[in-house]
């Protein structure tokens, strides 16, 4: 099970200003490929998201939503304070690895992004980590 850094997600109330800052000041480009197909389900998440990239890693700037975890019944809310995301080639093996390490996780499945099976968990300092696998 190989993990690669895929994106960093920043949660904000200022998507437009943050998008402009990261494009104009940090000179990132709008992401053109590997964009998630957000479902925009009102029971999950309907916030604005700007997708940027440096040519290798994406930056997702998402509208903050502190209620997403409550609406979905999930413990970990990835859009309340942002997260760092890794892509995995065998999510089931990685979930088994987390269980062996006694790390609890929330399995969001494909509820937010079509074609991405996503899980979320906390590091020891409370930062949210996403691991996802692209599914057919």
UniProtKB/TrEMBL annotation:
InterPro entries tied to this protein: Glyas_Bleomycin-R_OHBP_Dase, Glyas_Fos-R_dOase_dom, GlyoxalaseI/FosfomycinResist, VOC_core
PROSITE patterns with a match to the protein in the record: VOC
The VOC domain, residue ranges: 4-134
Name used for this protein in its record: VOC family protein
